[in-house]
Amino acid sequence: xxxxxxxxxxxxxxxxxxxxxxxxxxxxxxxxxxxxxxxxxxxxxxxxxxxxxxxxxxxxxxxxxxxxxxxxxxxxxxxxxxxxxxxxxxxxxxxxxxxxxxxxxxxxxxxxxxxxxxxxxxxxxxxxxxxxxxxxxxxxxxxxxxxxxxxxxxxxxxxxxxxxxxxxxxxxxxxxxxxxxxxxxxxxxxxxxxxxxxxxxxxxxxxxxxxxxxxxxxxxxxxxxxxxxxxxxxxxxxxxxxxxxxxxxxxxxxxxxxxxxxxxxxxxxxxxxxxxxxxxxxxxxxxxxxxxxxxxxxxxxxxxxxxxxxxxxxxxxxxxxxx
Length: 323
Hints:
About 70% of the residues lie in helices and about 0% in strands. By secondary structure, the chain is mainly α. The radius of gyration is 19 Å and the shape is globular.
């Protein structure tokens, strides 16, 4: 019950902060204009993800304050990394920055997360995995933030599932992330009155990377925590690989992700709902498989990835044929 009250309180705070951010964005003219490389048709304020960042940082303050001696510094390092990712995103939402500068800051933040994991005493491979996952998910969540409600709903579902398997302190951070996303979503789905912006999308990826790696230390099958991330990882990974192999400028905005092509045919609401159902199913499967041993959890994870991959291929082929 205390955890539920904690999450509800942060969701309410995020809702108020999102509304205030929308007022600010309208006054400052922070708008995403429609275009051929965008999936929306109406100019919309951006930067609403700052509300989610604030809720997670408040969770970090709470965790660091109540941590056992020597355990607070990893949370501080994580929080500084989050502030860097959100900060460079906030600046980019106000005035476009170079991709090189943004990526450099992302790497610094990933490095801070790696140091935090090392301070927690995790194995070297987990420290390296944390660095790589943070650098990847920051950009994956940015790539996949293209239709109403998708990025925030996926993060909320993943965070809720990870909260059930994480240790107490990190579980509260997962609840903070879930609460922040739920407070933001009414302003972004089904009709978008404000977008996450780079401040929000990159931050979601960074937090999920940290939660995923910490969760991997709590199971005998470390790939299980990746299951809630399957949909985004498959669509972003396969689409990026295809663009690179075909010689396209992969760093430029585009609308060739499977979810974007599906949204043009089915609409934002249906696609976001379908993606939520898939990720919710994958997350439930992760939780139910958490304490199992042997091959069965690996088969579950592999089946989840295989189905997402098959769906990506089918959607890309069908939407290309339909023009």
